[in-house]
Known about the structure:
This protein has no helices and 16 strands.
Amino acid sequence: xxxxxFIFNPIKNTLVLEQNQITRRPRWVRVxxxxxxxxxxxxxxxxxxxxxxxxxxxxxxxxxxxxxxEQINQKVHLFWYLPEADTNQQLHIxxxxxxxxELTVVLMGQDSSQTVAIxxxxxxxxxxDFGLAIVGGQSTHINHQVQLxxxxxxxxxxxxxxxxxxxxxxxxxxxxxxxxxxxxxxxNYMIANHQAFTLNRSWIVLIITLFHPI
Length: 214
């Protein structure tokens, strides 16, 4: 635990994943782990208790999943210290019917090349307020895909990226409206100092289904 940032030591409701091993875990959260695959499920309302998830000292590719059960509200902060070695990381986010999430993800890069895939899936009447902050990293590639699968699904994103020196950030994001009455809002801010470089490409994809009377 000595390598854990001291700021998280006294905080309850904190899950810590260090070198693919759990070193701290709240009792109320459901966790499934299979080698580098790690799945967290929120199954009861603890919206007043901010849940912190800290990942660091990973040395391999990772697959992280966060799932909100039906009609569950939960606030989550994910602090992800990306590995020093070149890896591919995946983050899957799923909100089931009538659930509501407030998720803030902070990606902190090292002097390495990272590819991070972020997938979001929202069922009907699910709402996600998503904050994404990207700090540091030598070469970071983000592929962000959002699937609005149910009616009245709502996705709101606020993004911030800060790159310095010769760092490079390449981010692609797309929101797929696969159900009527779904809504999305994207807002990104990018800061590049010195010779750093940032590139952001965003798409909103509307899939219109025509119903023919029999």
